């Protein structure tokens, strides 16, 4: 079968190629998916550059979310049938014509949901939902601040806020040329990251921000703390810049400010609590099927175009959510 293969760590696309690899065989409690569409994510870039913990070994086939049909079932797997439309989390290997997944992380695809949209649901949409609800404790009327607001998760968060009761949406982008994309995604106010960011946020939200969602590790944490309202929540859910995150602030600063800092990792959740991850995916797909959530994706027409998208994301040039049509 064809798959996207990263030969060894690299900061560029020079060590990524589409190649023939062996088709995976499902073990007990697993199944394989004939992939129609797969999601493309910045986490693939983190694996490509060799960040610890993102690639299981080299060469490496990336890809953590897929949609398609069940191709084969491992021993003892009675919950699915061959040919059934599904969406799934994978532990790598999703950017291929066939991917293996744990059955506990596979969800039937509701009628009316395309595989292109469904392939964006396991990581992007489920992460956005959990950041707001289970982790961030969003309440209708809250002011939400999102770093990397023009990206896939940022756009999904902007769309979830109205679906969850509404609130003020403030998006932060890294460059002025991303402002329009963030506004198009639904952010009410869009600010460009810079030395005056904290003051600009305070001008836009004079009572402070109730919920800050930050994928940049700890590089923006001083700003997050400066703009958070009393009883505000800050959720760190990535380390996009790489490197070692700085220590968190002293307990006294959090206690004195009535602030909470939480963390979130979808990959860790799928390992430690797969039922919670699958439940979030199911909730998201139902919202899409019921037309309560509108999702836009940019579709790449083959695996051959994925390396260029990875490079676009690595250079901060990407906007929105990218998925790839994989079906042969």
Give the secondary structure arrangement, pairings included:
Blueprint (H helix, E strand, L loop, with lengths): L1 E5 L9 E5 L9 E11 L1 H7 L16 E9 L11 E5 L8 E5 L3 E3 L6 H4 L2 H15 L7 E5 L4 H12 L4 E6 L5 H7 L3 E4 L4 H8 L4 E6 L6 H7 E9 L14 H7 L2 E4 L2 H7 L1 H16 L8 E3 L5 H9 L7 E4 L3
Report what the structure shows:
With 328 residues, the protein is α/β, with parallel strands linked by helices. The chain has 2 domains: 2-120 and 295-325, Medium-chain alcohol dehydrogenases, catalytic domain (Quinone Oxidoreductase, Chain A, domain 1, Alpha-Beta Complex); 124-264, NAD(P)-binding Rossmann-like Domain (Rossmann fold, 3-Layer(aba) Sandwich). The protein has helices at 42-48, 115-118, 121-135, 152-163, 179-185, 197-204, 221-227, 251-257, 266-272, 274-289, 306-314; strands at 2-6, 16-20, 30-40, 65-73, 85-89, 98-102, 106-108, 143-147, 168-173, 189-192, 209-214, 228-236, 260-263, 298-300, 322-325. The radius of gyration is 19 Å and the shape is globular.
Q: Number of domains in the coordinates?
A: 2
Assign the CATH topology of the largest domain: Quinone Oxidoreductase, Chain A, domain 1
Classified by CATH, the class of the largest domain is: Alpha Beta
How would a crystallographer describe the biggest sheet?
7 strands, mixed
Question: How would you spell out the order of helices and strands?
Answer: EEEHEEEEHHEHEHEHEHEHEHHEHE
User: What is the tally of beta strands?
Assistant: 15
Regions with pLDDT < 50 over 5+ consecutive residues? none
Mean pLDDT: 95
| Secondary-structure content class | alpha/beta
Our count of helices gives 11
Distance N terminus to C terminus?
9 Å
| Backbone shape | globular
According to CATH, the homologous superfamily of the largest domain is Medium-chain alcohol dehydrogenases, catalytic domain
Question: Could you tell me the radius of gyration in angstroms?
Answer: 19 Å
As a percent range, the share of strand residues is: 25-35%
Bin the helical content.
25-40%
Provide the CATH architecture of the largest domain: Alpha-Beta Complex
